[in-house]
Amino acid sequence: MPPLDAARGIAQYLPLHSLLEMIAIVIAMMVFAISWNTYSPKLPANIVFLGSVFLGVGLPDFSHTLSYAGMPDSEKMVRD
């Protein structure tokens, strides 16, 4: 899919992308933490399952944020 014309001129795309990704990661981890800590045998186990799904979404999202093209290269930073 080609990029939108409005997005082509965004000079600070990488910081914006990283900020939005981090917000999504924080929300996913908060959903996981709340569902994990509020589990009770009286409540359905679907809550813990849903929280685990959010953990499964948040971790790859975090790795995507770190591996996004344009992020600083850790090896390059060590060499400099």
| Rg from Cα | 18 Å
What share of residues are in beta strands?
Answer: under 5%
Average pLDDT over all residues: 80
Shape from CA axes?
elongated
Largest sheet, in brief, is: none
State the helical fraction: 55-70%
The counted number of beta strands is 0
Q: Structural class of the secondary structure composition?
A: mainly alpha
Poorly predicted spans: none
Separation of the first and last Cα atoms? 36 Å
Put simply, the count of helices is 3
Order of helices and strands: HHH
Task: Please provide a written account of the structure.
The protein has a domain at 21-68. The chain has 3 helices and no strands. It has 80 residues and is mainly alpha-helical. Helix 1 runs antiparallel to helix 2. It has helices spanning 13-37, 46-67, 74-79. The radius of gyration is 18 Å and the shape is elongated. Helices cover 66% and strands 0% of the residues. The model has no long low-confidence stretch (mean pLDDT 80).
Features:
mainly alpha; 66% helix
Gist?
The chain has helices at 13-37, 46-67, 74-79. By secondary structure, the chain is an all-alpha fold.
Please specify the SSE layout and strand pairing.
Blueprint: H1 13-37, H2 46-67, H3 74-79
Helix pairs in contact: 1-2
